[in-house]
Inverse folding.
């Protein structure tokens, strides 16, 4: 369960400034979902091991009319979907009528609210903050978002303990850093003799073979997610869900196929067969983000009949940011003529060619063609993301890469790679140790990543390679 934190407050108090600061730690691509959210921005944030979703709600000031009223409604919806609200006020402007209106609303909401006074740089924070206690929302956290002052203590002292309580002990068993223990003496021996004991350490079988693979079906509205979910669940399965559900929660549906267990994370809302009516609000960005975080593998569904949009790319950005495996599903492939098919393929190459590690499937969820093969790619991506690889094997591959193509000389000395070991999985992380690694050019880093990818036959998941100076 990934908690959601909403930034709320009137315009200009510094919400986007704080948003950027919170999400920067994770190189967040900020998702912009035109038409759906208008003024909302979503980002992924990370605080230590704790991951959460941040929503910038735009702004409300309580006096909205017309289009602004619509925007305020969006903010209210974001509050509803959030687990925690950071209510921001402007310490320089002081308490305003709009703050009081928002505060009243928040007190009624039954949500955890932290009151944050921003822009306390260069003024007496304590006296400027005093009047905000009148909002009766407890402590006032003083920050200067633009300079970062107070942000860390807000996060560490207030937000983190609360979010940790929310997430509880239900940590994901199949996700983890799990620094591989390795035997340095054995490694030294191997490096000295050039003989690598790859066999014994290698764990072919998956530690979590008994756990189901969780896959999420994500994509923007109307690309065919519910049709695909139904199709993957199988023809004769009686679907009992009527999706009255909340807007923010996906439905988790266990299923089996070829004696393998899966859980489909359905973001679309499977409709009961025979029922024609559409669920009204079936697309929620937060629901999508939470599903991505919770899945092992994401099926990103794209509509072959429409061009690839920024929304498709935003969702993909979230999948990649979260380090999740991805399978690209181009749906509605039925009844297209060759010319259209060719155009779709070249557009895919052009816009999504950069994720060359993802399998692409052309399917028709409506008719079922190609759907069965999706499971092969799901299995492969999951296996790639969770496979254990020994230090010996990784070091061996690194050395082969080095033999095929020497790292460059820097200031008269050759950059030296010494050994590599696993630093975690899901997504796989490989840590390379060596000398002068800070001088290693990006092109060589990319070469190494690709070399690892090809040698390990990793498909469907990003690999992260980190470089550590020294032994
Ligand atoms: P939003 O409308 O609530 O998203 O507010 P913005 O983040 O766009 O900030 C509004 C203005 O306040 C911008 O000009 C920011 O540079 C400024 N601002 C934001 N944080 C701080 C701060 O900590 N100190 C000061 N002095 N100005 C800030
Ligand atoms: P969702 O909003 O992503 O869940 O999309 P739906 O599953 O509700 O599908 C949206 C529309 O696309 C519906 O009218 C479906 O019948 C249609 N659709 C879904 N999959 C296919 C497909 O493979 N081929 C065609 N031609 N139409 C499809």
């Amino acid at each position: 369960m990934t908690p959601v934190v909403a930034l709320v407050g009137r315009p200009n108090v510094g919400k986007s400034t704080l948003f950027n600061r919170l999400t920067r730690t994770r190189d967040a691509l900020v998702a912009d979902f035109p038409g759906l959210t208008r003024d909302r921005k979503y980002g992924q944030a990370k605080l230590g091991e704790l991951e959460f979703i941040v929503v910038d709600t735009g702004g409300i000031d309580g006096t909205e009319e017309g289009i602004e009223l619509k925007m305020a409604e969006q903010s209210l919806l974001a509050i509803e979907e959030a687990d925690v609200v950071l209510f921001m006020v402007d310490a320089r402007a002081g308490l305003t009528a709009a703050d009081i209106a928002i505060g009243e609303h928040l007190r009624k909401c039954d949500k955890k609210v932290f009151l944050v006074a921003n822009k306390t740089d260069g003024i007496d924070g304590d006296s400027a903050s005093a009047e905000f206690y009148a909002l009766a929302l407890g402590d006032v956290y003083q920050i200067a978002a633009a300079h970062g002052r107070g942000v860390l203590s807000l996060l560490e002292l207030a937000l983190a303990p609360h979010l940790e309580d929310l997430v509880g002990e239900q940590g994901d068993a199949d996700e983890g850093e799990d620094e591989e223990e390795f035997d340095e003496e054995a490694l030294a021996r191997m490096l000295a003799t050039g003989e690598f004991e790859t066999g014994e350490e290698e764990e072919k079988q998956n530690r979590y073979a008994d756990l189901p693979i969780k896959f999420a079906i994500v994509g923007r509205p109307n690309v065919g997610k519910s049709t695909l979910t139904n199709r993957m669940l199988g023809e004769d399965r009686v679907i009992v869900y009527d999706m009255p559900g909340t807007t923010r929660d996906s439905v988790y549906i266990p299923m089996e196929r070829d004696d393998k267990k899966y859980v489909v994370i359905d973001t679309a809302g499977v409709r009961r067969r025979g029922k024609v009516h559409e669920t009204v609000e079936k697309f929620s960005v937060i629901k999508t983000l939470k599903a991505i975080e919770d899945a092992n593998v994401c099926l990103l569904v794209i509509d072959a009949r429409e061009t690839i949009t920024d929304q498709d790319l935003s969702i993909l950005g979230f999948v990649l940011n979260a380090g999740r495996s991805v399978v690209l599903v181009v749906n509605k492939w039925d009844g297209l003529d060759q010319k259209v098919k060719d155009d779709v393929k070249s557009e895919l190459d052009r816009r999504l060619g950069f994720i060359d590690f993802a399998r692409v499937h052309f399917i028709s969820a409506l008719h079922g063609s190609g759907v069965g093969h999706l499971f092969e790619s799901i299995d492969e991506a999951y296996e790639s993301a969770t496979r254990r690889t020994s230090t010996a094997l990784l070091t061996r591959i690194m050395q082969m890469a080095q033999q095929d193509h020497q790292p460059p000389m820097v200031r008269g000395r050759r950059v030296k790679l010494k050994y590599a070991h696993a630093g975690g999985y899901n997504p796989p992380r490989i840590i390379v140790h060596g000398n002068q690694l800070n001088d290693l050019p990006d092109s060589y880093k990319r070469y190494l990543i690709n070399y690892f990818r090809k040698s390990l036959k990793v498909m469907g998941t990003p690999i992260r390679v980190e470089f550590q100076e020294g032994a």
Q: What stands out?
A: The pocket of guanosine-5'-diphosphate (ligand 2) is lined by residues 219, 221-227, 268, 331-332, 334, 364-366 (CB under 6 Å). The longest strand covers residues 416-424. The longest helix spans residues 151-167. The mean pLDDT is 81.
